[in-house]
Hints:
This protein has eight helices and no strands. About 55% of the residues lie in helices and about 0% in strands.
Amino acid sequence: MGIEHNRQPGSDKFAQTQNNLAAAYITRTKGSRAENVEMAIALYGSALTVYTLEAFPEDWAMAQNNLAAAYANRINGSRDENIDRAIAFFDAALTVRTPEQFPEDWAMIQYNLGNAHNDRINGSRDENLEKARSFYPMSSSRIEYPRKNPVSRHPRTISETGFFPMSSSRIEYPRKNPVSRHHPQSQKPGFFRYLRLASNILAKTRFLATNQISKW
Length: 216
């Protein structure tokens, strides 16, 4: 019996297991990359049967963010539809992750949305670029550098797996189990993590300012 059946469906533990399994599939190097991403998407959807907006708003927003990252890197299906779905999931996460309550999470999503609109296929190219430009300054305005103990201030870390080709795209784990939340490749000093994000924002903004389109 697989690990996905080790928890009772409908329970908080079940949802945590689904989310952790999804993160494992999306970082999996064996097997078909396309199938692994599809499995991750299905597992995040399963977690959302428990993580409802009303009952678990923060975990719901986490799952929305994770689904956005998964769709941004989805191989199956239409690329234009996958990007649009990623944008919709990022937008959904922002209904909970406001700049007042979750400034760093909000800033990360602004940056991810900038990249999503930069890569967007549907709609006017000029309008997509203009929207992308609008997100980068907002993301940099909320970047806060860690204090003396960055580990305790940042329990959820930035994934290094590049799901949405950028260093800031996070695959997140539930807050209630801090030991399982950290992907082994994501243990980077907080200062350098945020310095890298700030550098990426500056570089991306400069590219867009000159209408140079790049895929990171």
